[in-house]
Amino acid sequence: MKNYTLEEKIIIMQIHHQYIVLTGAASGIGKEILILLAKYKCHILAVDMNEALLNETILNIPESEAQIKTYTTDLSLQKNTDALFEYALQIFPQIDIFIANAGFAYYEKLTTPDWQHIEKIYQVNVFSPIYSLLKMKEINKGREYYVCMTASAMAKMGLAGYALYSSTKASLDRFADAYQYETDDKGILGLVYPIATKTNFFEKAGNAPLLFPSQTASQVAKAILRGILKNKKSIIPSKIFWFSHILSFVQEFMNTPYQYYTKRFFKAKILNKA
Q1: How many other CB atoms are there within 10 angstroms of residue 116's CB atom?
Q2: What pLDDT is attached to residue 208?
Q3: Cβ pair 191, 151 in contact under 8 A
Q4: How many CB atoms lie within 10 A of CB 270?
């Protein structure tokens, strides 16, 4: 019988028997999260738009104690996200954890106006995660739940070639910052801020160079799992980025009193009337 460390015992107790939806599960960070979760006796709905790659990923999981179901869809459309939740609640009694990891980037020089080009990245990277959070809020009234969104270090620092991508991740960052003062239920929203990750992400973005510093998808996945277990609202996998993040944290700390001040008016005008 394996001798588990205290940290492993805590993970087992908190992950066992949980019902989890994971998007973007076929590759990159999502694939590594799936491999980690598969070690525990939980129930996972693995979601991706690439059915063949998703099935291949699951077949190649080295060891699995989890009950894994698959679901193929394009999360850029509201009707597909609604259908995902409908299916999840057909096979699960509830959804305890929703990991909104699906997303993509463009590496480009913006030159011509293209509404659909802009809309597509916002639909996947911003609309779908936020909409999924609100769906979780709707179906978990009175219950504890956790929603994890994959943001990016670029949420805090835009980089050349990634204007649209950076803006989508910054949107999630500002949304989460404000949402924590508005929500009044038992749910927790956590955002993950990976630095450049060694996956095919950059190739898909348009043959972009791998930025420095970088880390592996496995490192990010492990940080995400630890963050979920600790109900963290901010998950920073890279120690290098953590130190630079302190500077922005100081600014956010200075903003906090004013945010609480505005929450008083929000509570009086909105929450108390709900």
Answers
A1: 7
A2: 60
A3: yes
A4: 10
Give CA separation, 55 vs 30, 31, 39, 51, 194, in Å. Answer: 13, 11, 18, 6, 26
pLDDT tens digits for 29-47? 999 999 999 999 999 999 9
Cα separation, 50 vs 177, in Å, equals 32
For residue 52, which amino acid is it?
A: A
Structure tokens at 110: 């913006």
Phi, psi of 194, rounded to the nearest 5 degrees: -70, 150
> Mind listing the pLDDT tens digit for each residue in 102-134?
999 888 888 899 999 999 999 999 999 999 999
Contact between residue 121 and residue 106 where contact means Cβ atoms under 8 Å apart: yes
Question: Can you say how many angstroms the Cα of residue 135 is from the centroid of all Cα atoms in its chain?
Answer: 15
Beta bridge mates, 233: none
Angle (CA) 141-103-207 rounded to 5° is: 170
Residue 150: strand pairing partners = 192
Cβ neighbourhood burial of 89 (10 Å; 0-12, 13-18, 19+): middle
CA nearest to 123, candidates 155, 83, 164, 78: 78
Distance between CA atoms of residues 127 and 78, nearest Å: 9
Question: CB 241: neighbour CB atoms within 10 A?
Answer: 19
Q: Could you give all domains of the chain from N- to C-terminal order, each with its CATH number?
A: 6-248 (3.40.50.720)
Element of type H or E holding 214? strand 214-215
